[in-house]
């Protein structure tokens, strides 16, 4: 299995267009590497590729990745479909870039499929797509020899959904376990995680590589970097550090390659020279640039 990290920033990207914080300023100056919004691509055979989420930067990401270029026929593409982890704007709006592509298959959990119903109807008018339940019993098999199961890891409802309080609780946020039957390689893809859980322990124990939610380094990061009291507890992302953080949990799985993605523009991990980066490296976890290719 090959995995390409198409984008590694949280919603807004890095730098974010309306943010003048020190980190975003450094990215604009070229002192820190810019990052597009979180998205990845995976293949079992090098010919059939599947997107993990569809970021608003998808057009740029596809153009930057030779394996995803169209051909050999004028309208042929190696892209077979998209696996959505949630319905957040930064993970689904890239679907509009794919409109008109024939025969794509889109996997999502039932609440995500339901809230996207108007968008699905609109997209299906350009070319009908197959919309499948990612949580169907037994998982599913992707062209190219990948076996996938989805696992609920969060309940956060996107902000654009009206009447949040009366919205049905459900598996709004999932992680994916992707296994290559030929190599035995297992990828765990979890760019949005509300809190650590036994589900994640089970997934990490079997994984060769974990792509994990690294949105925030510290629990008070939004409040200190942007505006007092902003806090990210309600934003549905567990921090890297702290008693409820992911770093201590990840340390229990030294057998897996552990990579943080979905980095918010406030996150000190964006700076390779930061003490935060040294600390994460000390635990064996990695921060990688856009475009990194992994083999499992
Ligand atoms: Zn996001
Ligand atoms: Zn910023």
Q: What key phrases describe this protein's structure?
A:
seven-stranded mixed β-sheet; Metallo-beta-lactamase, Chain A; alpha/beta; single chain; binds zinc ion; 296 residues
Explain what this protein looks like in three dimensions.
The model is unreliable at 226-232 (pLDDT under 50). The longest helix has 10 residues, at 117-126. The strands form two sheets. The chain has a seven-stranded mixed sheet with strand order 6-5-4-3-2-1-14. It is built from nine helices and 14 strands. By secondary structure, it is α/β, with parallel strands linked by helices. Helices cover 20% and strands 23% of the residues. The chain has one domain: Metallo-beta-lactamase, Chain A (4-Layer Sandwich). The N and C termini lie close together (5 Å). One zinc ion binds next to helix 1. One zinc ion binds at residues 16, 19, 21, 23-24, 265.
Helix and strand sequence: EHEEHEHEHHEEEEEHEHHEHEE
Question: Helicity range of the residues?
Answer: 10-25%
Q: Biggest sheet, strands in spatial order?
A: 6-5-4-3-2-1-14
Query: Count the strands?
Result: 14
Q: Give the class from helix and strand content and strand pairing.
A: alpha/beta
At the third CATH level, what is the topology name?
Metallo-beta-lactamase, Chain A
Instruction: Report the biggest beta sheet as strand number plus sense, adding barrel if it closes.
Output: 7 strands, mixed
Termini separation: 5 Å
Q: What is the number of independent domains?
A: 1
**Can you tell me the CATH superfamily?**
Ribonuclease Z/Hydroxyacylglutathione hydrolase-like
What is the overall pLDDT average? 94
Q: Extract low-pLDDT stretches.
A: 226-232
Which small-molecule ligands are present, each listed once? zinc ion
* Percent of sequence in beta strands: 15-25%
- Number of contiguous helices: 9
Radius of gyration: 18 Å
State the name of the first-level CATH class.
Alpha Beta
Q: Characterize the overall form.
A: globular
């Amino acid at each position: 299995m090959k995995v390409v990290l198409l984008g590694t920033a949280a919603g807004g990207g890095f730098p974010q267009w309306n943010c003048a914080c020190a980190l975003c300023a450094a990215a604009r100056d070229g002192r820190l590497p810019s990052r597009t919004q979180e998205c990845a691509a995976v293949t079992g055979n090098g010919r059939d590729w599947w997107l993990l989420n569809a970021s608003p930067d998808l057009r740029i990401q596809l153009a930057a990745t030779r394996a995803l270029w169209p051909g050999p026929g004028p309208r042929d593409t190696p892209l077979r479909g998209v696996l959505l982890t949630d319905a957040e704007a930064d993970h689904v709006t890239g679907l509009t870039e794919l409109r008109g592509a024939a025969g794509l298959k889109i996997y999502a959990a039932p609440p995500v499929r339901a809230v996207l119903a108007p968008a699905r109807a609109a997209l299906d008018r350009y070319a009908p797509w197959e919309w499948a339940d990612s949580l169907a019993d037994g998982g599913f098999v992707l062209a190219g020899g990948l076996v996938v199961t989805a696992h609920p890891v969060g309940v956060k409802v996107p902000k654009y959904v009206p009447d949040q309080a009366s919205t049905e609780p459900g598996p709004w946020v999932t992680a994916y376990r992707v296994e290559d039957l030929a190599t035995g390689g297992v990828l765990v893809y979890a760019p949005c995680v509300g809190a650590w859980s036994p589900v994640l322990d089970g997934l990490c124990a079997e994984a060769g590589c974990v792509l994990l939610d690294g949105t925030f380094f510290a629990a008070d990061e939004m409040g200190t970097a942007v505006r007092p009291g902003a806090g990210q507890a309600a934003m549905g992302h567990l921090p890297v550090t702290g008693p409820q953080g992911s770093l201590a949990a990840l340390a229990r799985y030294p057998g897996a390659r552990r990579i943080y993605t979905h980095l918010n523009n406030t996150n000190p991990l964006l700076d390779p020279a930061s003490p935060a980066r040294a600390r994460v490296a000390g635990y064996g976890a990695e921060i990688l640039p856009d475009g990194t290719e992994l083999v499992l």
